[in-house]
Amino acid sequence: MRKRCCSASVPRRAELRIVVLALAVLSPAAAVACDLAGLPQRIESATATLAYRAEPALTVGVPHVLEIGACARNGSARLVAVDAFMPAHGHGTNYRTEIAATGSGRFRAEGLLLHMPGAWELRFDVETPAGRERLVQEIEVE
C-alpha cells in the first residue's frame, strides 16, 4: 500500500485549480467573438468598443438602419438601446429604434429618424460584465 502525505495534496490541488481555470478561459464557450469589420464609425470607452454603419448615410427625414458591432474589454457586450438627442434643443427623436441581435456581437437597429438638421448625439447603451454604459458620438446632420 502506498502512503499518502498531506503536504503533497496541497500543491496538487493548486495545480488542479490552475488547470481548471486555464481550461475555462481557453474553452470555445468562454471565447467571445467580436466582429467590427466593415463598420467605419467607432466609439471607444474604458470598458467597451462600438462600431457602426448607417444605411442610408445619416440625413434628415429618412428612416435609417444601423449595423452595429459591440465588444467589451472583458467578456461580451449586448446592445440594449439606440437613440439620438439634440443637446441644443433638449429633445430626442420621435420614434423608438428597434434592435435585433444578428450574431457575433453584431446588432441591427431599425427606425432611427433624425427629424431636423443640426447637432445630434447618437447614444448607444451597451451592457457588459462591468455594467451598463452609454457610448455617445456627436454628429452634424444637414
Can you walk through the features of this model?
The chain is mostly beta strands. It has a single domain (41-141), classed as Immunoglobulin-like, CATH 2.60.40.1930. 15% of the residues lie in helices and 47% in strands. It has one helix and nine strands, in the order H-E-E-E-E-E-E-E-E-E. It has one helix at 6-26; strands spanning 41-44, 48-55, 64-72, 78-86, 91-92, 98-103, 106-112, 118-128, 131-141. The strands form two sheets. The chain has a five-stranded antiparallel sheet, with no helix packed on it. A four-stranded antiparallel sheet has the order 5-4-8-9, with no helix packed on it. Strand 4 (78-86) and strand 5 (91-92) form a beta hairpin. The longest helix has 21 residues, at 6-26. The relative contact order is 0.19. The model is unreliable at 1-10 and 16-32 (pLDDT under 50).
What would you say about this model in short?
By secondary structure, this protein is mainly beta. The chain has a single domain (41-141), classed as Immunoglobulin-like.
